[in-house]
Amino acid sequence: METITIHKAKTELSRLIKKACRGEEIVIARGKTPVAKLVPLHKTTQKRVPGLWKGLVTCTPDAFDPLTDQELKDLGFE
Q1: CATH number for the domain including 30?
Q2: What is the pLDDT of residues 8-36, one digit of tens each?
Q3: What range defines the domain where residue 19 resides?
Q4: Are 38 and 61 in contact (CB under 8 A)?
């Protein structure tokens, strides 16, 4: 994990964002005190796999039936 000063982060922001997108974490410090961390919003190395949850999630046949008046009341919809 790389630690850099705020001044250096401002001058090298584009390069730091590229490093974060590759999965690296960059600590930004005010002097020698760490104050922030630059990390990717999501891992770009993981790919989505269609059908990964197939057969693991089920619902009952009445799952999409309209709610009763009592169920709506219990949920706060009056």
Answers
A1: 3.40.1620.10
A2: 999 999 999 999 988 899 999 999 999 99
A3: 2-41+53-74
A4: no
